[in-house]
Design goal:
Number of helices: 3
Helix content: 55-70%
Mean pLDDT: 85
Low-confidence stretches: none
Structural class: mainly alpha
Distance between the termini: 16 Å
């Protein structure tokens, strides 16, 4: 504990956490690449960002499904913006989260 937001990456590398994390992300990226290639070659019908998981939890009504997908995109963008703000503030002010 008591590690700055910026130093957290180095500490995770030292602890051996980043290797398995990198491997997991690599598997997901390879699967995404495979889906993209098959989509370009029209072997599968796929919407952008569709990894064929989680469709059973979407609403059955097409309009409600569209709204749910929009909410997911907006929340994902908000989360990325918030995380970039945390990192920027940590680097600018050399402080730790939650910056109090």
């Amino acid at each position: 504990q008591n590690v700055s937001t910026i130093d957290a990456h180095s500490k995770m590398v030292e602890a051996g956490v980043m290797g398995p994390l990198l491997a997991g992300v690599g598997v997901v990226e390879l699967y995404g690449g495979w889906l993209t290639l098959n989509g370009f070659e029209e072997r599968i019908k796929r919407d952008a960002g569709d990894f064929f998981i989680g469709k059973q939890v979407l609403p059955k009504d097409p309009e409600q499904e569209r709204l749910m997908r929009l909410k997911e995109i907006e929340n994902g963008r908000l989360a990325m913006l918030a995380f970039s703000g945390i990192c920027t503030q940590a680097e600018l002010f050399k402080s730790t989260w939650p910056f109090m």
